[in-house]
Amino acid sequence: MARPVIRYVCQSCGANYAKWSGKCDSCGEWNSITEEAGSSSPVPGGLGKKNVRKGKQIEFVSLEGTSKPVPRMVSKNLEFDRVCGGGLVPGSAVLIGGDPGIGKSTLLTQILAALTNQAGIKCVYISGEEAIDQVRLRARRLGLKGDDFLLASATSVRDIATTLDEHDAPQVVVIDSIQTMFVDSLDSAPGTVSQVRASAQELIQLAKARGFSVLLVGHVTKEGVIAGPKVLEHMVDTVLTFEGERGHHFRILRAVKNRFGPTDEIGVFEMSEQGLEQVSNPSALFLAERRGNVTGAAVFAGLEGTRPVLVEIQALVSPSQQANPRRAVVGWDSGRLAMILAVLEARCGLVLAGNEVYLNVAGGLRIGEPAADMAVAAALISAAMDIPVPEDTVVFGEIGLSGEIRAVNQSESRLKEATKLGFKNAIIPPIRAKKNCNKAASGLDTRQIEHLQDLVALFAAKSVKKTAGG
Ligand code: TYD
Ligand code: MG
């Protein structure tokens, strides 16, 4: 028999303590440790039972041999399928995190309908957050029909497990959300670390045993990480995040972990009156409101997963009276901005110290690639010198601390995307002889920049022309 024990668990990181304390030693969070009572085995009648004294021998096999290709359930929603690595894998567990109101329930409702209609896959949607009527209302708004998939409102993992174990199990199950689920053998409230962990474990085990794919919706904390223990992310096969800026209508589905496909793939959607629409050409969307020939704006040819995406980077430099002028960044790393400012100052003599500097990635996309360095620098130089970046130009390249421009991966596909969208010029890192990025290959006039100074000189030359020309 499992003995009930009292544990003190940090709600932030999941660390266990024998007694209460005000600060968690493991993650440093204050006031995050709460008492949780429960059996020492988190799974009711589960895991622990099988460990009767001695286990059996496990078998080792060679690396070579034939394995069946992973079967996939394809929704024909290309954006979603791509992020999953080509469709949902039967028996897999997928965790989808995102801010409240971003559209997780909408996305999953649409995906279930697509799976049912396109592939005749049996799906169920279990909501612990909304009443049946609310889910129905959403489905009606999305134009779905009554026979698309089945609905239920439940929060007890025991009830859910019993139901899914008895009927001929559906092939895809959505749990919205894992934070509302509870295992009745634990005393703690739904949403606590131990409840989330136990509920997820139970549901994932059932999914593996029955061969259905389970999609768990996970809340995110205000820091942007999925609420609950980090182990949740380890337990599932795939972690997707659904992100977007409030006030912008497009949303990005991103794979951050995927045992069945590549990570860093993105799917782009646009939230409309009729739900989420797929965006097959994100570059066009991100550049839609761009106006040519303004200062402080550069188009970055970026890469999201395997997909080239063009976005505009905007900078504003304005004089400040303050001792510590403001630096504000949206959509890019503020540490990296500080580094580029330092390099511009130390290596190129472009002093921005007495100025406020604002940087914005237009459209609300978040860029993590160091390849955006040179586009950021171009926007900053353009803003500081009040000279526009040459028209129809894309920029990419990583900047090193000595000001050297470093090559980035997949230059060809970045240039190809720029050509497709009608750009004529590209400012890029030096190309090693073997690679072929010349005009013939990409259709663009490329200018290779070796040092950040050369980029500043490029703008300075234009400024001379501008004053000379009147
Ligand atoms: P929802 O899927 O409920 O978000 P989440 O589950 O992530 O909390 O959707 C949230 C928002 O989306 C809601 O504020 C209304 C908006 N929305 C649309 O704009 N169009 C639509 O067709 C639907 C269904 C929702
Ligand atoms: Mg929801």
UniProtKB/TrEMBL annotation:
ATP binds at G98, D99, P100, G101, I102, G103, K104, S105. A motif (RadA KNRFG motif) lies at residues 257-261. One of its GO terms (cellular component) is cytosol. Keywords: ATP-binding, DNA damage, DNA repair, DNA-binding, Hydrolase, Metal-binding, Nucleotide-binding, Stress response, Zinc, Zinc-finger. Belongs to the RecA family. RadA subfamily. The middle region has homology to RecA with ATPase motifs including the RadA KNRFG motif, while the C-terminus is homologous to Lon protease. One of its GO terms (molecular function) is zinc ion binding. Pfam families: AAA_25, ChlI, Zn_ribbon_LapB. It comes from the Bacteria. The keyword Signal does not apply. One of its GO terms (biological process) is recombinational repair. This is DNA repair protein RadA. The lineage of its organism: Bacteria, Pseudomonadati, Pseudomonadota, Alphaproteobacteria, Rhodospirillales. Residues 69-220 form the RecA family profile domain. Transmembrane segments: none annotated. Residues 356-470 are annotated as: Lon-protease-like. Plays a role in repairing double-strand DNA breaks, probably involving stabilizing or processing branched DNA or blocked replication forks. DNA-dependent ATPase involved in processing of recombination intermediates, plays a role in repairing DNA breaks. Stimulates the branch migration of RecA-mediated strand transfer reactions, allowing the 3' invading strand to extend heteroduplex DNA faster. Binds ssDNA in the presence of ADP but not other nucleotides, has ATPase activity that is stimulated by ssDNA and various branched DNA structures, but inhibited by SSB. Does not have RecA's homology-searching function. SUPFAM superfamilies: P-loop containing nucleoside triphosphate hydrolases, Ribosomal protein S5 domain 2-like.
